[in-house]
Fold:
Amino acid sequence: MPNTLAHIGVQAWTGPTVFKETDFRWVFLGLCIPDLPWIFQRVVRTAITGIDLYDLRAYCIVQASFFGCLFLCAAVALVTRRAKRIFLVLSANVLFHLLLDATQIKWANGVHLWAPFTWRPMGFGWFWPEAWPSFALTLLGVGFFPVFLKYHVPKPKTFRWKPLSRLLASFFFLGAYFFVPILLIKCPYTADNHFIRTLKDKGRRMGKPVEIDRNEFLPTPRGPVLKTCFKEEIRLIGAVPEHAAKISLKGRFSDQGTIHVVQFHVHSRLRDIFSLLGLGWVFLTWTDPLTRGISFKK
Structure:
């Protein structure tokens, strides 16, 4: 998926045309919402031991779907002064984010635009995250900084905590954002999203095809292994890199603990750096002590 700076490079530049006179903190928040479950997953995976990492991945798949993101969009919009417009801005930028994600090649991965009606992931697969279009979009994101500074104007506070019914409705949708994925957690397993059903069923995965997205490849004294995000080390045979790297792969289980790799792709680690920079910028716009936003004058 494109890094956060790349999303800013597209969505922040197009925002003035689509959402005139809108505080651009909402555009920034909307383009970050689909990534929040994956940030949450990393924190939980690091901080909590003993949790079922396959269930955690399934939970985040539901939460990161367009359907799941809409709950958070509604929860936030209901405590603003212009709830309908803010909901439109947030949900439109969530959709735009997911469509941009779908443009990149992501083995074993994809976006869920039509959940909960279907859990088949969608992807156009036009280019890899390391290809030149990704870097061009990233440069557009960097180029938005001077525009941000030039057109940065004070905006009034936009939150509204009354009437009580609006606040209660906001809490209802916020609760749904966290609770509904628990109810639907079996759906990604049924569809074998991210091949989590194949990977979890260790006793019956021999002979099954598998794809894995962006995991750590390590050459070791006992042979090349893949250290998965589920904290399992799987031995690799066949086509493998010559050095440690973050890779995506396609292959087949030759036995319960070995994948015969047919194809692999080495990923650049710059994507994570660009995402951290983009997220940091978004965070700063929301923690500005003067509560200033950004809008574009006609």
